[in-house]
Amino acid sequence: MTSSKTDKKSNALWRFFSSVKLTIVLLIILAIASIIGTLIPQQGQGAVQFAKSLSPRWFSFLSNLNLFDMYHSLWFRLLLGGLGLNLIICSVDRFSGAWKRFSTIPRPDRTKPFEHLQPEQTFFVQTKINDPVLSIGRFLQKRYKRTQNKETGHDRFFYGEKGGYSHFGVYLIHLSVLIILIGGLVGSFFGFEAYVNILEGGKIDTVTLRKGMSPLKLGFEVSCDKFTVDFYKNGAPKEYRSDLTFFINGKEVEKRSALVNHPIQFKGVTFYQASYGKLPGKKVRLKIAKHANKDDITTLVIEPGHPVQLPEKEGQLIVVDVKGDLMGLGAAVQVLIQPSQGEEVDFWVFQNPQIVRKRLPAPMARSPKFNASEFKPYTFFLDHLESAYYTGLQVNKDPGVNIVWIGCFMMVAGFFVTFFTSHRKIWVRLSEEESGTKISVAGTASKNPVGFQRELENLTNDLKDTFSEKG
Amino acid sequence: MINSLILSYITFVYFGSFMLYLFMMVNGRDIFGRLATIVTAVGFAVQTIAIVLRWLESYSLGIGHAPFSNLYESLIFFAWTVILLYLIMEWRTKSRTFGAFVTPLAFLALAYASFSPNVRSHIQPLIPALKSNWLISHVITCFFGYAAFGLSFGISIMYLLKRLDNDDRKNLFLKLIPGKGVLDELNYQMVVIGFLMLTLGIITGSVWAHSAWGTYWSWDPKETWSLITWLIYASVLHSRTVRGWKGKKIAILCFIGFSCVLFTYFGVNYLAGLHSYAKS
Ligand code: HEM
Predict the structure, then answer these.
(1) Which of B132, B199, B216 has the CB atom closest to A415's CB atom?
(2) In a mutational test of the pocket of ligand 1, which residue from A92, A170, A177 has the highest number of ligand atoms less than 8 Å from its CB?
């Protein structure tokens, strides 16, 4: 056993990874790397803009180092892995020491702790103490664990201790760091981050992954039955919610509502209310007039994509596209007409044709694509665009979250054990002298010497009291 | 709003206590120290009342929320925690010399909050993402952490000054600063409290982010900077506990650590991110 241990100790690699110097270096490198990561925009819009502003040389240099997506890069993960390895090996290396400090019980008759005693820690009892094991032993047993006593010559010694588990606090902390790292890894391997917009009344089965913007099939369908938003008096949104229904193979399975700060889960996938917006196009109200005769107006309420018959059955009309604002000229719909005889025609109908005439150069304004009278003999007017809300949902799956929470909990527990408990050892010595018995109290603590000194003084006073009661 | 008015006056109160602590250090008369403690404690009591008033006022405006939701309120709370921790430390150590190094932090934070044109003091309604009890725990723990690091920063400066002191030098100011051993030990305790609180702050922040944005960690600059701060203080603890570093090196590391705290707090506003303080 011992020989393999010394082998280990002399192994250079082992020594390297068990060194706390390495820890400090790694922590500082990670800090510096993270600083760089906050200076260079990561992923997304900002990163693209920043990248465009660089010279090609710099761009390829930075992107070869993965500096635009640093936190997911191999080298950053290697640094974290190095820290993990450092932690494991360091903990293994030192655990036996901590175990010894925890489990070894010192001899009760040690005299060293009694050197340099404060005067308050000693007192005198005028009588011979008859049964010290009963009185003092009991007294210590009530407050300390693993009490022992021993008689040597004229002296009788008692020993007691508590808080030995304090030595394991740092292991709890270090284990928790590992667990959090593992939780992060599990999330990045087995989870995803995506988003989707669902129109009120709409249904989806695919979301868009943030990474690479590629589509991902969920394996079930989600519809947004209703979206509601409340506002403060100043117009800022106060609360918004989406009433969602989940379907498997077309069958309704569950109905839930997602609110800001109240995400919902379905089959391990979490839906967060992230944003919302308004899209035109739920319903379109078109007015159709026969050319010369303005009195002869028909109103049609149309859902985009659904063909409707023209008033005198000359063919059918489909609204193929709806724009809340087309080229800065206001709301418009694109109408496709499939006559029973003749060619298909399609053109845009604006809500406000005057603007089009004013803003567009004349040749363009006269183009057939912008002519609402293109299908003779009718003229089309866009009367009203009913807009629909869409709900913006963040769709995530992270099977590592709970592991991370467990790690966090352990870390906090570990801090309390490490910083607020200490291994306290107490010795009490009774020395018989001619005129009575001298009692001294001594001790050591692994942490917080000031607090421990107070504890020793209290202990001495309480002991004194037990004897004065009897006397 | 009466609360902001009171809070702006508190700025001068803390400035007054700073001056009194300074007088005490310069001429060694204890009376200034005792006065300083009284002024600080009164300022603290009034500040507490003002914060509660602000809280009540937000309810009477119909947008009730705890007063920890924008830059102004966080600065006020920072000053409050600095003074609270300081008063506890003064009481525990029975030494007033720290006052001259710590009260400026509170006074500067209040001055910035009350008089900078960049900081708006109105009570604003909360956007939905900020309506969460996790937010309250997040802000409270973070700011206790920042305050503890602030105190550690003050103590580090004292340490570096105390190194200039020696027997030949008859400088009363330096003589009055407690011994290097005491400072080092106190500094360690502050770092421990700060580290614990910052850890809790990062954890509660993650829980909050998880509920509001769907990820517990998104490497947003503010998050990342709090991690950087955390890493620096983790290395402070290791270099002290394991490598036995003491004194000057630790003081310098604490200096760097507190600069990171300040950057997390203010500097990050110049980098883009999710945190709403950046915009208020
Ligand atoms: C981010 C990662 C880490 C964190 C948050 C962390 C945290 C801590 C804390 C809070 C302490 C207690 C310090 C004190 O008592 O003042 C500690 C002690 C210690 N850490 Fe770490 N640590 C980390 C990584 C590591 C690594 C990688 C090693 C590997 C060498 C290591 C080795 C130690 C040792 C040897 C101690 C002293 C244990 C003792 O007092 O017996 N730590 N750590």
Answers:
(1) B199
(2) A170
How crowded is residue A192: how many other Cβ atoms within 10 Å of its Cβ?
16
Cα A471 to Cα B84: distance, rounded to the nearest angstrom: 47
Tell me how far apart the 2 most distant CA atoms of chain B are, in Å: 65
Which residues of chain A neighbour B191 with C-beta distances below 8 Å? none
Q: Where are the domains of chain A?
A: 2-98, 105-163+423-470, 188-279+391-410, 282-387
Contact of B209 with B215, CB cutoff 8 Å: yes
In this predicted structure, the answer to whether residue B5 has a pLDDT above a threshold of 70 is yes
Task: Check whether B275 has a pLDDT greater than 50.
Answer: no
- pLDDT, mean of residues A24-37: 89
Q: Is CATH 3.40.50 the classification given to domain A188-279+391-410?
A: no
Nearest residue to A371 via CA among A291, A308, A449, A431: A291
Task: Please report, rounded to a whole number, the percentage of residues in chain B having pLDDT higher than 70.
Answer: 92
Non-local (6+) Cβ contacts of B213 within 8 A are A272, A274, A394, B129, B274
Residue type, A41: P
Residues in A closer than 8 angstroms to B221, CB to CB, are: 38
User: Which of A375-379, B54-58, B187-191 shows the highest mean pLDDT?
Assistant: B187-191
Q: Do the Cβ atoms of A262 and B211 come within 8 Å?
A: yes
Q: Which helix (H) or strand (E) holds A384?
A: strand A378-397
**ipTM of the shown complex:** 0.89
Asked if A196 and B85 count as a contact pair (C-beta separation under 8 A), the reply is no
Å between B65 CA and nearest CA of chain A: 13
Element holding A272 (H helix, E strand): strand A269-290
- SS3 of A193, please? strand
Show which of residues 32-61 on chain A sit within 8 Å of chain B, judged by CB atoms.
Answer: 34-35, 37-39, 41-42, 46
Ordered DSSP codes for A32-51: HHHHHHHHSPPSHHHHHHHH
Q: Angle at CA A201, nearest 5°, toward A197 and A206?
A: 40
Say if pTM beats, i.e. exceeds, 0.90: no
Band (pLDDT 50/70/90 cuts) for residue A284 is confident
Interface of A with B in 380-439 (CB under 8 A): 394-396, 398, 401, 404-405, 408, 411-412, 415, 419
The distance of Cα A289 from the centroid of its chain, to the nearest Å, equals: 59
The rounded distance, in Å, linking the Cα atoms of A411 and A394 is 29
- Give the distance (Å) from ligand 1 centre to CA of residue A170: 6
Q: Is A236 on the interface with B (CB under 8 A)?
A: yes
Tokens at A71, concatenated:
């936190």
Q: Which two tokens stand for residue A53?
A: 């502003």
Closest to B234 in 3D by CA, of B139, B149, B147: B149
Separation in Å, CA of B277 to nearest CA in chain A: 17
Q: What is the pLDDT of residue A48?
A: 67
Strands (E), A131-236: 145-152, 155-162, 192-199, 203-209, 215-231
Element (H, E) at A256: strand A251-259
Judged by DSSP in three states, A267 sits in: coil
Please answer whether residues A224 and A199 qualify as being in contact, where contact means their C-beta atoms are separated by less than 8 angstroms.
yes
CATH architecture of A105-163+423-470: 2-Layer Sandwich (3.30)
pLDDT exceeds 90 at position B174: no
Report the side by side order of strands in the sheet with A436-445: A122-125, A436-445, A424-433, A155-162, A145-152
- CB-closest option in A27, A239, A404 to B128: A239
* Residue B181: partners with Cβ closer than 8 Å, 6 or more residues away: none
Ligand 1: centre distance to CA B231 (Å): 12
Concatenated DSSP letters of A218-244: EEEEEEEEEEEEEE-TTS-EEEEEEEE
